[in-house]
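REQUEST ID: PR-0412
SUBMITTED BY: lab tech R.K.
PRIORITY: routine
TASK: structure prediction, single protein chain
INPUT:
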Amino acid sequence: VRGFGHERAEVLALAAGLERPSEHPLAAAIVAAAEGEALSIPEVSGFRVLVGRGVAGRVGGHDVALGNARLMEDERVETAAGRDVVEKASRKGATAMFLAIDGRLAGVLSLADAVKPSTAAALDALREAGVRLVMATGDNEATAKAVAASLPIDEVHAGVSPEDKANLVAALKARGAVVAMAGDGVNDAPALAAADVGIGMGNGSDIAIQSASVTLLKGDLAGIARARALSEATVKNIRQNLFFAFVYNAVGVPLAAGVLYPLLGITLSPMFAALAMSLSSVSVVGNALRLRSATI
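STATUS: complete
OUTPUT:
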């Protein structure tokens, strides 16, 4: 936290008070930081989520706005004093947000969501499976590239709005791609709904979870790689079971109907027909149970 004309503790407390009603993971981090420093967090009234820009409301008797440069432009807040701080944070892969109090820049908050140790391996597994990896984020280009540099990302789109994310999904689908979109925030909801498969994170916002068709209980991308591998194994298993069922019926039904009786005198007694049908069911169920031991 960097303050401009305000104490650090005041900036953090006001930001935490403003963000407390928000479901965004970054909001939770700000509130946790203030609570960790035992700060008195004021109540907020008139809380507003400004999609793709930030949040605003009245906190501790002040009009407070917290968000990106676009929000500051909309609020006509001069941000020149904080741009250097934002640029330094962005180069390190952190998300920097401006805090304005009563229409004037009061501070810059820098938050970094550390890349989980399992993320690179999960993305490598997806890429090896032929998946093209695209990152779309509302963060600025410097932050996006800093994060993407350590990961096997094929394409980066930075500074995008919720509408831009949904349009990107639509554009990819128009090219014939099957799109899976993973996200955890309010800004991701339109793209999650537009994707062929929307993947919400269990630790994300309610609207993101509701917009998704699949929800991972943990915010770990390794779950996506496991889910995709399990899906492929399931589809393969279904095809195998259909083949088994087809072979049993292709052989058994003509025999039971007596097709070979006029030529070879061969027929299928009801007892053996019942046994064959039982074996068909056992083979299909047994093959399906192999999924329990599948290596995912």
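NOTES: The two ends are 42 Å apart (CA to CA).
REVIEWED BY: pending
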